[in-house]
Amino acid sequence: MWREGDLVTRKSYGEDVLFRIEALERHLALLKGVEFRLLADAAYSDLVRVAEPAQHRPTENVRLKAAEFARTIELSRERDRTVAAPDRPPFFELPGKVLHLDGDANYLNKCLQVYRNLGIPAVGHHVHESMMAEAVYRLLPEVKPDILVITGHDGLVRRPGVDRHFIGNYKNSHHFVNAVKIARQYERNRDALAVIAGACQSHFEALLQAGANFASSPARILIHYLDPVYVAAKVAFTSIRDTVNIYSVIRHTVSGLDGLGGIETKGSHRVGLPRLEY
Questions:
Q1: What is the pLDDT of residues 194-204, one digit of tens each?
Q2: Is 278 part of a structural domain of the chain?
Q3: What is the mean pLDDT of the chain?
Q4: Spatial CA neighbour of 8 closest among 18, 59, 16
Q5: Structural contact between residues 21 and 2, judged by C-beta atoms closer than 8 angstroms
Q6: N or C terminus: which one in the chain shows less Cβ crowding within 10 Å?
Q7: Do residues 142 and 194 both lie within one domain?
């Protein structure tokens, strides 16, 4: 007997992705990825129950990779502090400010927790993908971020001979593209506003052409829900004097170069003197 909230995998896909049952219909279970931004459905006969996430080896490997990236960000910050001011008075830091729009409320809360843990000022809003462009238009002048993250759920129609360059074959890529275009009407300079856009299997080329600095997904693969956050963190902690090392940041994400790509982008991190007491 299946219940909403049960952890499951799918036999037909080699039990590769861990899902949580979101809803039960007459013949199908509606599923949401636990670690990947993926919505799916499956026949009940295709489901395999997972008692604990730790029992699912692919998910555990993904979590280890995500934890490794978080450590990489923190180690990079410690190194920069040591190199930047070995003989100067203590300084204070101003990481770039993030506006994060997410089509999934659960993932949004997890992403905001990561920003808090890293000390990155961030404002988050749960926005349905179809409303992203309107939200960008309304929130950018209000929040005035250095970094904009636009993400949620997406997907490419999977059938023989499908044209992956036709944006109509994607669930939400056209919504993300429209949102990026609105962002570029607000701020044309890609260094003044770094835009990170897309979700699982999104139309990578269309997002870059619309004005994104970083986007998913070059190989139309699933991306980890934290991958856009870690790219944003790298931009937030890279000095305004430097450009983000594209290869370094992307190869440390869970999805790697198949899942994310981008263009040269300046960081948005500043330091100041003297150190603030509050």
A1: 999 999 999 99
A2: no
A3: 87
A4: 18
A5: yes
A6: C
A7: yes
Residue 102, token pair as written in the block: 């997410």
Instruction: Give me the residue label for tokens 């459905």.
Output: 41
Residue type, 178: N
By residue range, what is the domain housing residue 137?
89-272
CA–CA gap between residue 149 and residue 116 (Å, rounded): 16
Cβ neighbour number for residue 263 with a 10 Å cutoff: 13
Which residues are within 8 A (CB) of 245 and not within 5 positions of it... i.e. 6 or more apart?
none
Structure pTM? 0.85
End-to-end CA distance of the chain: 55
Mean local confidence (pLDDT), 113-138:
95
Is 70 within a domain? Answer: no
Q: How far apart are CA 246 and CA 102, in angstroms?
A: 23
- Please give the pLDDT value at position 57: 62
Number of domains composing the chain: 2
- Residue 12 lies inside a defined structural domain of this protein: yes
Do 178 and 243 reside in the same domain of the chain?
Answer: yes
**Do 153 and 250 belong to one domain?**
yes
Instruction: Please indicate, yes or no, if residue 34 is contained in any of the structural domains.
Output: yes
Q: What is the 3-state secondary structure (H, E, C) of 84-126?
A: HCCCCCCCEEECCCEEEEECCHHHHHHHHHHHHHHCCCEEEEE
Residue 38's contacts (CB-CB under 8 Å, 6 or more residues apart) are 17, 19, 31, 32, 153, 155, 200, 222
- Domain containing residue 237: CATH number: 3.40.50.2300
